[in-house]
């Protein structure tokens, strides 16, 4: 039976918030990963607002601070990439800047949840915005698991992954020289990806890339400019429906358990 994680279950250097269910022990756990230039704080608040039944939440802060020279602000901001790269054409920080270190750290978190806290893969879900969504996609499409006791993450079926404005990183596409059964067989974890109707990271090419790697991909296009977090009930409905389908319950799914 899964148990609620505690801070001592994770390395001290990892900055995270653990949000328990409002009632009863958890059977699911949702890992929340913020976007480029943000902190874990808004996602800690989001987890409380979601109030998902029988579900603990883990809001993790990006591994690396963004230097002030790039942000022009003293307000702390963090990212998930291996480096800070600038897209000179757009004059902004590139989201797809490698996720090797992030895969290692997040993989260790998942291992601790599975082996130390008793969560099966199907009871672990991910919610990421922008670069956080890319980090989650990079993790579950990985052909390793950071543990000799676990199979490759790409062979596991996690509870599901929601990516808001985050595409599959370029490093997660198999090449001809590195293709293997683990990288060519479609990944079982169901994906919900949401993006804007224009000025979006979720292009047709991005959708095709996800469908190339994953067996179940649901795409929702919001009628707005630029990828951002859900800002209305209409935008939140497909997210909550996804949770309603994928969250597990000790008593089935009671009527009205998930508010949309």
TrEMBL record:
Q: Which superkingdom heads the taxonomic lineage of this protein's source?
A: Eukaryota
According to the UniProt entry, its GO molecular function terms are: carboxylic ester hydrolase activity; palmitoyl-(protein) hydrolase activity
- What is the residue range of the signal peptide feature? none
Q: Which SUPFAM superfamilies match?
A: alpha/beta-Hydrolases (SSF53474)
Residue intervals of the Phospholipase/carboxylesterase/thioesterase domain: 23-194
- One annotated Gene Ontology cellular component of this protein: cytoplasm
Where, if anywhere, are coiled coils annotated?
Answer: none
InterPro entries documented for this protein: AB_hydrolase_fold, LYPA1-2/EST-like, PLipase/COase/thioEstase
Give the family this protein belongs to, as stated in its UniProt record: Belongs to the AB hydrolase superfamily. AB hydrolase 2 family.
PANTHER family per UniProt = LYSOPHOSPHOLIPASE-RELATED, PHOSPHOLIPASE_CARBOXYLESTERASE SUPERFAMILY (AFU_ORTHOLOGUE AFUA_5G09340)
Q: What is the designated name of this protein?
A: Phospholipase/carboxylesterase/thioesterase domain-containing protein
This protein's species is Hymenoscyphus albidus
């Amino acid at each position: 039976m899964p148990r609620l994680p505690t801070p001592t279950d994770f390395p001290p250097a990892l900055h995270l918030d653990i949000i328990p269910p409002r009632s009863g022990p958890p059977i699911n756990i949702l890992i929340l990963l913020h976007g480029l230039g943000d902190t874990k704080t808004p996602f800690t608040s989001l987890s409380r607002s979601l109030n998902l039944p029988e579900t603990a939440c883990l809001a993790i802060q990006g591994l690396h601070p963004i230097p002030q020279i790039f942000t022009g602000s003293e307000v702390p901001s963090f990212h998930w990439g291996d480096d800070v790269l600038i897209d000179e054409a757009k004059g902004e920080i590139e989201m797809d800047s490698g996720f090797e270190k992030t895969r290692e750290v997040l993989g260790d978190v998942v291992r601790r949840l599975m082996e130390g806290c008793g969560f099966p893969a199907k009871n672990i879900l991910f919610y990421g915005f922008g670069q956080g969504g890319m980090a989650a996609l990079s993790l579950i499409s990985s052909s390793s698991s950071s543990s000799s006791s676990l199979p490759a993450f790409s062979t596991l079926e996690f509870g599901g992954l929601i990516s808001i404005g985050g595409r599959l990183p370029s490093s997660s596409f198999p090449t001809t020289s590195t293709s293997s059964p683990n990288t060519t067989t479609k990944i079982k974890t169901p994906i919900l990806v949401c993006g804007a109707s224009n000025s979006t990271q979720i292009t047709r090419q991005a959708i095709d890339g996800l469908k190339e790697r994953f067996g179940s991909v649901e795409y929702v296009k919001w009628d707005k400019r630029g990828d951002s977090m859900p800002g209305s009930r209409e935008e939140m409905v497909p997210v909550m429906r996804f949770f309603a389908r994928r969250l597990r319950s000790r008593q089935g799914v009671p009527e009205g358990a998930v508010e949309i």
